[in-house]
Amino acid sequence: MKLYELKGDKERRYSLFSWRTRLALAHKGVVPDYVPVLLSDKATIAFSGGTTVPVLVDGDRAVRDSWAIACYLEDRLPDAPSLFGGSAGRGVARLVNNWVDRAVLPDVISALALDALGRVHPEDRVFFRGMMEKAFRAGLEELAADRPKRIERFQRTLDPARATLKQQPFLGGDAPAYADYILFSPLQWARCLSPEDVLRPDDSLRAWRERMLDLHDGMARRVPDARA
To answer: What percent of the chain stands above pLDDT 90?
Structure first.
């Protein structure tokens, strides 16, 4: 299998959606060939029928969108550890996917976009700024000025996960599941692209984040963070 994903400066792999797929592949025991592409390079992934990564290529099959890839891996590799724990778990993971994408991501991405600008690939910086400013209808400097309010709202939005993880080590229960990879992805995006820690020092989610960073032989911990 091949995984097309974004590259930043210093070969930084920062796409939060690709991180969901990276961890899902590791969960299934698959080590793909990684194909890094620029955010602005749409021609390289045009074969997929889309304009965004991740794109997973398995033989002559191309699958795009992190959720579709997770479902594909679950069905393609039924004897490997399950990402969902059955059809009911898949349905609950879809809820987590929608919750993170719609409620969690906007504040953390808009708050840290100016930091991220300096860590995406130099050839992508003009494209990145335009994309972010169009999405949030404000300049990156304006968004950064509003950072404390956005980070505080982001932290409050995580309360359901906080309450869950007080009762069990992972969203998946005793072991990680795809829902954990979904929620972890914005925290990994922030870790890769901003020196600001988006979790408070006393946040109970910090212990869970450490467990996630240690998974799969420390896959997520080994990549350069924003301080590198």
So the answer is: 96
- For 62-113, write each residue's pLDDT tens digit: 999 999 999 999 999 999 999 999 999 999 999 999 999 999 999 999 999 9
Domain locations in the chain as residue ranges: 2-76, 87-222
Task: Return contacts of 97-102, CB within 8 angstroms, 24+ apart.
Answer: 97/67, 97/182, 99/160, 100/182, 100/183, 100/185, 100/186
Which residues of the chain, if any, have pLDDT below 50?
none
Contact assessment for residue 37 and residue 5, using Cβ atoms and an 8 Å cutoff: yes
* Number of DSSP helices (H) and strands (E) in the chain, helices first: 10, 4
Q: Are 15 and 67 in contact (CB under 8 A)?
A: no
Q: Burial level of 166, CB count in 10 A (0-12/13-18/19+)? A: exposed
pTM for this prediction: 0.97
The CATH architecture annotation of domain 2-76 reads 3-Layer(aba) Sandwich (3.40)
Dist CA 108 CA 193 (whole Å):
11
Q: Is 24 in contact with 181 (CB distance < 8 Å)?
A: yes
